[in-house]
């Protein structure tokens, strides 16, 4: 496809809303696929450290 202007590129032949929404959702899913396991790992390590401290005090 050849676009004569940046506005035509954004409009994507009157399908811009669908195209850019699809890209946005895909990007959000990719970010979540990276971020959620990292957050879960951090939470797990914090819970384990807390558990070990409790066991040391007994």
Low-pLDDT segments: none
Shape: rod-shaped
Average per-residue pLDDT, rounded, comes to 95
Strand share of the residues?
under 5%
Helix content: over 70%
Number of helices: 2
Structural class: mainly alpha
For the secondary structure, the number of strands is: 0
Rg over alpha carbons = 23 Å
Taking the sheet with the most strands, its summary is:
none
What order do the helices and strands follow? HH
Question: What is the distance, rounded to the nearest whole angstrom, between the alpha carbons of the first and last residues?
Answer: 70 Å
Topology:
Layout: H1 6-11, H2 16-57
Description:
The protein has 58 residues and is mainly α. Helices cover 83% and strands 0% of the residues. It has two helices and no strands. The chain is rod-shaped and about 75 Å long.
In short:
The protein is mainly alpha-helical and 58 residues long. The protein has helices spanning 6-11, 16-57.
Task: Note the main attributes of this structure.
mainly alpha; 2 helices; 83% helix; 58 residues; rod-shaped
